[in-house]
Amino acid sequence: MDRDVVILDNKRAASDPTLRRKWAFRITACCLSILLLITFLEALALANLVDYRLVLSTPSGRAWGNPRNRLDTELIHLHQPYGSFEGEVRGDLATWYGLDTGRRYPVSIKFDWNGFRNENDLTSADMVVVGDSFVEAPILLKENIASELLASAFNWQVLNLGQSGYGPQQELVALQRYGFAVNPKVVVWMIFEGNDLTTDFLRYERSTQDWDQFIAKMHGFRKRSLLSNVYIRLSTIVNPTRRDQKYGLERSGVLASANPSDRDRIYFGYNANKLSHKDLTSIDRGLDVVAKASQECRKRGIKFLVAFVPIKYRVYHDLCTFEPNSKASTWRISSMNDRVAAWARNNQIAFLDLTDALRARAKTGQLVYFIDDGHWNAEGHAVAAKEIEQFLRNTDWLIESQ
To answer: Which of 11, 18, 197, 255 is buried most deeply by CB count within 10 Å?
Structure first.
């Protein structure tokens, strides 16, 4: 069509009331159709027939807000039975601080009939290992995690009851529900210094105090909504980082090394400042839960060991150099490990602090935590497993359990 003819038609349309009405009708009809479609799609979410977090693969954040997990009134969240995941992920601190360190970690994880990281459905086991993400170790291959290394060391069946985001109350329920069912000889309970006895303990209380309110907040219509999830997805595209890189740099240090070319930046998640009154109260109450687990094990003739898992900063704080404006340079190591050790002595509970062994290996220049993630790497798991193995071999537990 000739350009002049098109311009003439457009002018005629602009001056013709009938054509203007037709165009207005078409635009209105189009808008109404879109509105009706959105209303229909949102109605599916309102009726809980569709969760657009799953449809759009919206970043789920924490385990208790992950729609792929199943809900449980005692455990709050649990992986789906026989679920699995394969792919590559970034370190949690790289994601949290909005960093691109260039590192990607292969993930290949499978869950058993109860939703825990075990290849087989165990009906009996010699050892049960209880804990959070340090025990589950989702970004490590199965053969590199402590529970598997312990299984190989003793030629035992070892049940891994680790679950990311768990605190002591959930770990006790997991032990009672799944751990005692396999009649173990030994239970190893790993306490992570960073949040097990503080934020995780308190979050569990808030979540279970009003279950309906928790569900509405974490999994209600606003979370499932199409528009909410479209907004989140668009936000991650426009602004993919939650914080700027300066935030992460302030919480990092440069590893000291005998070889100047072998220097690297290591990022820290949990600081080590003085424990507050709220922290101390929460720690004492959390340890009461662990003491209950110990008592239940003792009644069943099961040996019970508490292993203290230090935050990365406790291991590396004096093995790094910090910039003048670094937040991490102002942190101070807390008394958390000493408090847990004293509690264990007073309650006659076997206790193993993994800090010294991890620090000794770190001083050799060998990384025991991921650079841009708050968890142990394969070497860290090997150190922890070896320490637990040696502890058990140095006691009479193995003889008594034969």
So the answer is: 197
Nearest 5 degrees, angle CA 71-CA 216-CA 74? Answer: 30
In a domain, 134, yes or no: yes
What CATH number is attached to the domain comprising 277?
3.40.50.1110
- The pLDDT tens digits for 98-135 are 888 888 999 999 999 999 999 999 999 999 999 999 99
Percentage of the chain exceeding pLDDT 90 = 62
> SS3 for 95-112, per residue?
HHHCCCCCCCEEEEEECC
For residue 39, give its domain range. Answer: 3-48
* Residue 345 to residues 20, 167, 309, Cα–Cα distance (Å): 86, 22, 17
Do residues 321 and 314 touch, judged by C-beta distance below 8 A?
Answer: no
Asked whether the beta carbons of 327 and 282 are under 8 A apart, the reply is no
Selection from 317, 374, 380, 362 nearest residue 91 by Cα: 374
Q: Counting beta carbons within 10 angstroms of the beta carbon of residue 271, is it exposed (0 to 12), middle (13 to 18) or buried (19 or more)?
A: middle
pLDDT tens-digit series, residues 277-330: 999 999 999 999 999 999 999 999 999 999 999 999 999 999 999 988 888 989
Does one domain contain both 130 and 38? no
Q: Is residue 59 part of a domain?
A: no
**Whether residue 165 sits in one domain with residue 277:** yes
Q: How many domains does the chain have?
A: 2
CA distance 190 to 196: 9
Across 53-62, 210-219, 376-385, the highest mean pLDDT is recorded for 376-385
Determine how many CB atoms are found less than 10 A away from the CB of residue 203. 18
Distance CA 386, CA 352 (A): 12
Q: Is the pTM of this model over 0.85?
A: yes
Q: Which among 304, 222, 197 has a CA at the least distance from the CA of 53?
A: 222
Residues 138 and 20 placed together within one structural domain of the fold: no
Of 29, 51, 9, nearest in space to 229 by CA: 51
